[in-house]
Design goal:
233 residues, Metallo-beta-lactamase, Chain A, two-stranded antiparallel sheet, 9 helices, 11 strands, 27% helix, elongated, binds zinc ion
Length: 233
């Protein structure tokens, strides 16, 4: 959520190498597996896991969404997209469906300071307006739908849910950072991960710190240093 908000500060997007996006990357050694962003195709297949990609409608040619199938279960992730028939067609049968939705246009104008044209561009053209995302969810009807990407604040989330509920009445979670989904054939649980708030740096990965060149230590005046009770310098 935050990363993408940051990315929009640099709108329009930076130029990219189209050759990089013209073919969805596949895992080395996965013979017979490959797809372009222009069509639905398998991009990974191993150990019973099949991942397919399909076109996402987002600003320019290249973005894709993903569908993962494993053990009779199906997970679909939109990434950035405006609502599309590609998504509705490829998300059918999803157990867990995660679709993006942005804040409403009035919220973007009020909170982010966009003018109306920019707010509509970001909130409804590059991304999915909440009510339009709700339409997609109703078309697919997954076991659990999750909306993410919007700024999920206590005083914005209610308006967003109202918009979604114009079209979709099924199971819904509005994502927050650290939200966890446990999906089985018998049920889907939504939990919040609990992480340590005080952690030491990982000492196994301190080589760069240990080998970094050291700057000369800043100097202090003698009159100040002389007042050390346990003199070190
Ligand atoms: Zn985005």
């Amino acid at each position: 959520m935050s990363t993408d908000a940051y990315c929009f500060q640099s709108w329009p997007p930076l130029p990219i190498d189209v050759s990089v996006t013209s073919t969805v990357q596949t895992s080395p050694g996965q013979a017979g597996v490959g797809a372009t962003y222009r069509q639905t195709g398998t991009v990974y297949e191993a150990n019973g896991v099949v991942i397919k990609s399909f076109p996402a409608v987002h600003i320019y040619d290249g973005p894709v969404s993903y569908r993962l199938e494993w053990n009779g279960l199906c997970f679909v992730f939109s990434g950035d997209t405006t609502p599309s028939q590609f998504f509705v067609d490829n998300a059918k049968g999803a157990d867990l469906l995660i679709h993006e939705a942005f804040n409403t246009v009035p919220q973007l104008i009020e909170r982010s300071g966009y003018d109306e044209k920019s707010a509509k561009g970001i909130g409804t053209m590059a991304h999915s307006a909440p009510d339009e995302a709700g339409y997609v969810l109703d078309q697919v009807r997954p076991r659990l739908a999750v909306l993410y990407h919007f700024f999920n604040d206590f005083d914005t989330v209610l308006e967003i849910e109202r918009e979604v509920r114009k079209h979709y009445q099924g199971p819904l979670a509005l994502a927050q950072d650290l939200m966890v989904f446990n999906v089985t054939a018998g049920g889907i649980r939504v939990r919040m991960a609990v992480t340590a708030s005080h952690v030491w740096p990982n000492k196994e990965r301190h080589d760069a710190f240990r080998s970094a060149s050291r700057m000369k230590r800043p100097q202090m005046s003698r009159w100040l240093a002389d007042k050390q009770l346990f003199p070190k310098f």
